[in-house]
Design goal:
Elements lengths: L1 H36 L4 E11 L4 E12 L2 E5 L3 E5 L4 E5 L4 E5 L3 H7 L12 E10 L5 E9 L5 E9 L5 E8 L4 E11 L19 E4 L2
Length: 214
């Protein structure tokens, strides 16, 4: 009888603990989302590492991203991506081609995990991992988002800096085993970018081949 009572108590404890960690995770992400929405446009430089252990593939690179609302422009050594809230342009440096598309929410999460700040309440189970220290030595909290959807993303771990309430590291794991770790090096807010920043300008890329995938 005592054994049964003990098991019930343990089950109840884990149930309550799960609710508490989910609530704490949601509160942290709510603050992060509010900080982003009030940032009036931000710009960040980052370092990324993408690896697929099963395939023995690993790649590291640096880049920059600008965001405002649901719009962004992402610059890496191999590609440049603009998204104006509806249309996405992806310019491939090697081929001098730009692909036009209307990405889904899952596709946006893969291209730019920071969009999770606007969509984390849809299709994810939240849990609080614990306290941590960011790369710049500041206190932070780690939150796990586990996907409940059928998309490519399996889970996302977000490190949120306490001083700013903004993410400073994102670890995205896909269902095929690929893992991307993105570390924010420097972030500026109150950029207030004009709308044209988030659209591809053909005049800047004379002779480019446009491929419309919409």
């Amino acid at each position: 009888m005592k054994r049964v009572q003990y098991i019930i108590i343990i089950m109840l404890w884990f149930s309550v603990a799960g609710v508490v960690t989910a609530q704490k995770a949601e509160a942290l992400l709510d603050r992060a989302a509010a900080a982003y929405e009030s940032s009036n446009g931000l710009k960040a430089s980052f370092a990324a590492n993408i690896r697929h252990e099963k395939q023995g593939v690993s790649e590291s690179f640096e880049g920059t991203i600008q965001m405002k609302g649901d719009k962004f422009v992402l610059i890496t050594p191999d590609t440049r991506t603009w998204y104006d809230g509806t249309t996405q342009w992806t310019y491939v440096v090697r081929t001098d081609e730009v692909n036009l598309s209307n990405p889904t929410g899952d596709e946006l999460e893969f291209t730019n995990p920071m969009t999770l700040l606007r969509s984390y309440k849809k299709g994810f189970t939240l849990s609080y991992i614990g306290q941590s220290t960011s790369d710049n030595g500041k206190m932070a909290d780690d939150v796990m988002l586990t996907s409940k959807k059928n998309g490519d993303v399996a889970k996302v771990e977000v490190q949120i800096e306490r001083a700013t309430s903004l993410p400073v590291r994102l670890t995205v794991t896909l269902k095929n085993g690929m893992c991307s770790v993105i570390r924010i090096r420097k972030m500026q807010t109150e950029i207030s970018q004009p709308e044209h920043v988030f659209r591809f300008n053909p005049a800047d890329y004379p002779g480019v081949t446009e491929i419309d995938l919409r």
